[in-house]
Design a protein that fits this description.
mainly alpha, 15 helices, 3% strand, globular
Length: 358
């Protein structure tokens, strides 16, 4: 009887522990998660394929099998009161175990202190239309400037892009030691087509500590995406924070392709944010004028790159399984990201706190 509700008690203790960001940052982030993630990456980093995808498939198969087996076992017992109490206990125990596993291998990272403390930044809580317009124009200048440095020799193979991202983190860690990245474990996705079905470019697999990247993405989206997933490997759980880490790593890097990839994404965010203000006012003429102005200011090469990226995603829009985007949005909300999928755009607040200079 002493151990009857042990899992429930542990779940409550972990939940209470997670309410204190200082404790989570110090004990979980600096010790438990760092040791766990580094250890797993050290062991599994040498495997030539993404184990994480296979692990997920196995878990899904086991989950379906056990649900069906459980439903079959209870079909003749479900009306008995004693069984109902046992069922409730069994369900809550399983949920407690799942919760504990998730929190220990990844989930508590959502409760840590903001990396703004490490960077010594005051990050604003909102931005204005004027700021987004100014930021868009700023990125246009940087995009044109950086694109002029690129040629076919800059378009690397995926393995080379992985190494360039690792090198970029090494450079960034000279200024920011907390960005030190050890034991690389970045893998090409085995089943990239699933990304079209459920809507991902890449993902972090916490059980195997792998950053898993789709190799079929347009090359100019890859470097920033890789750096974003590497930020998750370091325990930056929030999507806006992972975006900021990738932004900062690209900023300190001398790799023109990485810088360009980051600038393309940041310009997309800032232009969307600017246009959303105009849409809310219902000013369609201003919307058209801003779009036309930005297109005129962007170099032909940048426009062509953006056109190819847009075409890539438009071709796959019809393949998305209905409801997957809403599920992911809800997952982010449950994990302290109140704006859900839109939280990716919140990197703009970080960019205002730490702008890129010409």
């Amino acid at each position: 009887m002493t151990y009857l509700y042990a899992w429930h008690g542990l779940a409550i203790l972990v939940f209470a522990f997670g309410r204190n960001p200082n404790w989570v940052s110090k004990w979980y982030g600096n010790y438990w998660f760092k040791g766990y993630a580094n250890g797993v990456r050290k062991v599994l980093g040498s495997f030539p394929f993404a184990l994480g995808e296979i692990v997920y498939f196995i878990l899904i198969i086991l989950l379906i099998y056990n649900i069906l087996r459980w439903l079959y076992s209870i079909k003749n017992k479900i009306k008995k009161p004693v069984f109902t109490l046992g069922l409730l206990y069994s369900l809550t125990k399983k949920l407690a175990i799942i919760y504990l596993l998730f929190e220990m291998v990844w989930g508590l990272n959502y409760q840590k202190n903001s990396p703004a403390i490490s960077f010594g930044l005051q990050v604003p809580t909102q931005y204005t239309e004027a700021q987004m317009d100014s930021l868009s124009l700023h990125y246009i200048g940087l995009l044109n400037q950086t694109r002029s440095k690129l040629d076919s020799t800059n378009l690397y193979f995926l393995d080379t892009l992985f190494q360039e991202a690792i090198n970029a983190y090494q450079v960034a860690s000279l200024t920011y030691p907390f960005l030190t990245y050890e034991h690389p474990n970045i893998k090409k996705a085995i089943f990239p087509g699933l990304g079209d079905k459920i809507g991902y470019l890449a993902f972090y697999q916490p059980l195997t500590s792998e950053a898993i990247i789709r190799g079929d993405l347009p090359v100019y989206t890859l470097p920033f995406t890789i750096c974003h997933e590497m930020a998750h490997q370091l325990g930056y759980a929030s999507e806006s924070e992972a975006n900021f880490i990738a932004y900062q790593v690209a900023h300190t890097s001398s790799d023109a392709l990485l810088q360009y990839s980051m600038l393309l994404q940041m310009f997309t965010y800032s232009q969307q944010a600017h246009l959303s203000f105009i849409v809310k006012r219902g000013d369609f003429n201003s919307w058209k004028q801003i779009v036309a102005r930005n297109k005129k200011l962007l170099s032909p090469q940048v426009l062509e790159d953006r056109k190819k990226i847009k075409a890539f995603f438009q071709e796959r829009m019809g393949e998305r399984i209905p409801g997957t985007e809403q599920l992911y949005d809800q997952f982010l909300i449950w994990n302290q990201q109140s704006r859900g999928i839109e939280s990716y755009n919140d990197v703009l607040l970080w960019a205002l706190a730490k702008p890129i200079q010409h």
